[in-house]
Amino acid sequence: MSDILLDIRDLSIIYATDDGVTEALNGACLQLRKGESLGLVGETGAGKTTLARGIMRLIPNPPGKIVSGQVFYDGRDIMELSEKEMRALRGRQISMIFQDPMTSLNPVMTVGEQIREVIITHHPNLSKAESRKQAEEMLEMVGIVASRYDDYPHQFSGGMKQRVVIAIALACNPQLLIADEPTTALDVTIQAQVLEMIHGLKVKNNTAMLLITHDLGVVAQNCDTVAIIYAGEIVEYGTLQQVYKNILHPYTEGLFGSVPRLETNSKRLAAIDGMMPDPTALPKGCKFAERCKYATDRCRAELPDMYELEDGHKVRCFRYEKEAQ
Amino acid sequence: MEKTKTNTQRSLWQDAWRRFRKNRTAMAGLIFLCLLVLIAVATVVIDVVTQKEFYNTYVTSQNLVERLKGPSLEHPFGQDEYGRDILMRMLWGVRYSLFMGGIAIIFSLIVGGALGALAGYYGKVIDTVLMRFMDILLAIPSMLLATAIVAALGTSLVNVLIAIGIAYIPTFARTVRASVLTVKDQEFIEAARSIGCNDREIIFKYIVPNAMAPIIVQATLGLAGAILSIAGLSFLGLGIQPPTPEWGAMLSNARNYFRDAWHVTVIPGLGIMLTILSLNLMGDGLRDALDPRMKN
Amino acid sequence: MFKYIVKRLLMLIPVIIGVTFIVFFILNLSPGDPAAIILGDQATAEALEMKREELGLNDPLLVRYVDYMVGLAHGDLGLSYRNSISVWDQVIDRLPNTALLAACGILVALVIGIPIGIISARKQYSLLDNISMVGALVGVSMPNFWSGLLLVMIFSVHLGWLPSQGMGSGFGPLVLSLILPSVTLGMNSAAMVARMTRSSMLEVIRQDYISTARAKGVSERVVTFQHMLRNALIPIITAVGLQFGNLLGGAMLAETVFSWPGLGRLMVENIKSKDIPMVMGCVVVMATMFTLVNLVVDIIYSFVDPRIKSQYKKGR
User: Per the UniProt record, which residue ranges are transmembrane (chain C) (predicted)?
Assistant: First the structure.
């Protein structure tokens, strides 16, 4: 078990606003081994970003609050760490790439300084020249010439900015990289480049990655394990093989139904009927029951557990209750 | 969370009102203002009904024996340097702040709003000429401009109104122009034009309602500024003249006596402050209610 | 950058011409006859007519305006109606006093306003935030001529700590005599700046790059000052620039309350005596001051925000 880098147990996060309490994340359990990639897939508003920020303990408070759960990183519970210990972890051990490169760089600082800042924060003994040199190396590594060190973010394109963000995230060789939809805001052509680069750097440093996306194709290319999240709950969790070859949860089924395929000659994509439930008023039972063609009265009244099949494939659906036992 | 709602004008305003009502401080401001309006109207009615007899007996009649006497049961706010009841003078003074400020702001809203809308909607030469002119007016601080106008025209009630009205024109012109510009290029204007609406229809049916929110907020805050300016001018002796019980003029008189009696200074100032405060509270509340995106 | 500043300075000229024209036009609407003001009630009709001719009052408005502008270019603002002294000399004599007071007022506004705004934003919805924001709202709502009187009542009359009137000579007395007027003058602006700083900081706090900064593991102090404040500064600077205009308007009131020998008081006194050239001189100088401050604000922008700076470079 010692190769388990990240172990999230029963993490629950809420947002309390004027409009009511939103249960953004409810009892999430995930594991990630060293060097491994986990894909977290779900719709907008399903709680993906909340989970990522929860691991970093960067939930904006107020209104957000981590209500329960543990996050073990390298055997230590992150939730028990002091703010100072947590800061030592952020950027050094765990890094995060945010969704929108257009807004994730400070507009009034040069890109070089923004990279240097993370280096000098975690290596305070470095001289200015040394840290600058390292930052320039990072720029080169993500494919930007070092001479652009003194340029400001507005002088870069979206893809270039995301490269800078990646350089910041990887500058201290973290063990864990959390990438929150790193390519969603980019042009399709740039998307592939950026993903390829992340993948290359990750392999080079044996960094584990939590890749958040709504794109099943991206997951298939980059991840070893997959978790499907719906309305704040993990509904299906297993290896890439398990989830892609043996779809269990009706929601996952729906997700795959909405991906265009080359081999079948369907005229329309199958969309999932209905909408995700209002997060301030979640149903008592299975969150997906309202949109599920297999739903029974029990589904609406009672929340299914996470059932584990023999091969370790987990699913939150009563249909597999017997099979799991 | 955005809730799906039919996006008609009415529900927009109803929504805004619902949000405004929830804001307790803004409601307090609104209630205080309503109270002031009531007082102002009531005192005007009393003046008309009693043909100023009440005014002459209780508001301006002097009682030099009891000059500068502090608050008592008979005179809760005390008496001024001529022994006049300060409470009565405060009540009779409400109208000057409120109505004069209101008239001045309505004037500048209409003139400034029209100029701003013209500039924003037609653009090009009209825009350049008008806005350069407004920039020049804005280069003169509004209180300074108002003072200069009063200096030229002389100190009278109407001149103060004109001065303040003119001084606030550029602010409104800018606000209206900015919101017209943002609305103008929206696609629904394009759509309206494509179904054959003419300029006038577009301006009044589409642009005005959509530009309303910032204008209302600006008007509320402008009213606060106008009331302050009126009081300030009167304080300098350039506005409304004693013995008219205008609050700024009362303060101006009080300056000579504040070493002997605190209440003659504290009370009129408190009146001005509370009025401005309630307007500011309302303005903040309106801004939050009308533009929920701006709420922090 | 230098070119830009020169260009902006040149652009000031039409603004100042426009301002003087408007002020000149307004003040010449004055119904009073300047000749009668100068010569008094007993003057004969011929004497009045001669005086009018001498002052050039019989010329058309535009001619008089051009004359005035030519004079202004030579540092000549005409003669006072009341005592025939040079307006320029008087105005220049008073200008430093108002500039000093206004600068101290701005200083008060910044020193009080910005820290309060930062703390309030960092501790949003806390008790401290609520108290500060109520205080700021009250501060915005207080007429400064009233708060000035209250300060005098407390600190001069009751406590006897600070002078209530005039401008002290010598460094110590000058500083002492500056305290109450600058606090009076700066208080509204301080409240405004506090509110502006708070909302601007709150705007920035939600930005993604703040999350990026936090995710780097930098301390909250660095996040607050290096990342938040530097970005929040632009609207704050704008607000301060605009506040300077209010401050100059307020200077008339504060100077009157404290008998401060500045331009504002000079102007008020001369309005009462209908000395139009003096009033005109005061307004023109104060408006020019305001315009210059706004220019400085624009230049400061480019140092704070690299996006604006690169626009200049392109423009050049």
Answer: 9-27, 99-121, 133-159, 171-194, 233-258, 278-304
